[in-house]
Design brief:
This protein has helices spanning about 20-25, 30-40, 55-60, 65-75, 90-100, 110-120, 125-130, 150-155, 160-165, 180, 190-195, 195-215, 225-240, 250-255, and strands at about 15-20, 45, 85, 120, 145, 175, 220-225, 245-250. By secondary structure, the protein is α/β, with parallel strands linked by helices. Helix 5 (about 90-100) packs antiparallel against helix 6 (about 110-120), helix 7 crosses helix 9 (about 160-165) and helix 12 (about 195-215) packs across helix 13 (about 225-240). The radius of gyration is 18 Å and the shape is globular. It starts with 14 loop residues before the first strand and ends in a 5-residue tail after the last helix.
Length: about 260
């Protein structure tokens, strides 16, 4: 994996491209709006250039040529920015960890992919690097239980940054499950949920039950920054008619309410 260029995160007024992600755009636009609010509040100049998918679904399905074409389109979209910031560890991880390996080593595309990988950040990671604080006021949504996404644990570790930011939100009671629960997948797993829907749903039910049991049925589950987990766990809660709201960490940090 290319070394992340931490120096650009310390520019006085970073020029940031917000990688909104297709899932947030389609299912939860408030996540992208929250990310925009947080970045602007941190003093960044933010733009949302025309963009596509990161290529992860095709990559995970084994269609590497299709993933390469999708990823290469991002090289032009995100050129000229100090940083590219995504409210998604999995999408940031696709660019940082996998895109440079999909293009010809030593080629111009490879050099551009390496540079893009080095200046791509997950949102909470970036905010912590530049010393930003949440823009949320007093939290009145009750206790919040934390859910780690698999990507936030393995692709782009950002949990420490997210928890540090959440602990700055006034009035927010943050509850952490035991390590075994935190390390357990919610069952979404990208294409896994499509190929194994029944198993995926059962894993989701078990994960949500474990989260709620660990936190005395907290009314809010906050996800490490991956929309797949959010959509999956919310669907499980809705199917069981549980009064649970699953929120993205950016929504809470930006002061949005359940």
């Amino acid at each position: 994996m290319p070394a992340v260029d931490v120096s650009i995160a310390h520019t006085d007024t970073p020029r940031v491209a917000l990688f909104a992600t297709c899932v947030a755009n389609a299912l939860r636009p408030t996540v992208a709006k929250a990310a925009m609010r947080l970045l602007q509040g941190a003093g960044c100049t933010v733009a949302v250039p025309e963009q596509s998918c990161c290529g992860q679904p095709a990559f995970n399905a084994g269609f590497e040529e299709e993933a390469r074409r999708i990823g290469v389109a991002l090289l032009a979209a995100f050129s000229g920015f100090d940083a590219v910031v995504a409210p998604s560890a999995s999408c940031a991880g696709m660019i940082r960890n996998h895109l440079p390996r999909l293009v010809a080593l030593g080629s111009q595309e490879w050099r551009e992919a390496e540079m893009l990988a080095a200046r791509t950040f997950e949102l909470c990671d970036f905010l912590q690097r530049i010393g930003a604080s949440p823009s949320a006021g007093e939290w009145r949504g009750g206790p919040v239980v934390w859910h780690d996404s698999c990507a936030s644990l393995r692709e782009v570790p950002m949990t420490d940054a997210a928890l540090a930011l959440l602990r700055q939100v006034p009035g927010l009671e943050l509850l952490l499950p035991e390590e075994e629960v935190r390390q357990t997948c919610c069952g979404f797993g990208g294409l896994f949920a499509v190929k194994q829907p029944e198993l995926s749903a059962e894993m989701g039910r078990r994960k949500l039950a474990a989260l709620l049991a660990a936190a005395d049925d907290a009314p809010v589950v906050v996800t490490g920054p991956d929309m797949g987990c959010l959509a999956h766990l919310q669907a499980v809660a809705d199917a069981a008619r549980l009064p649970v709201r699953v929120m993205h960490v950016a929504e809470i940090l930006a002061g949005m309410t359940p």
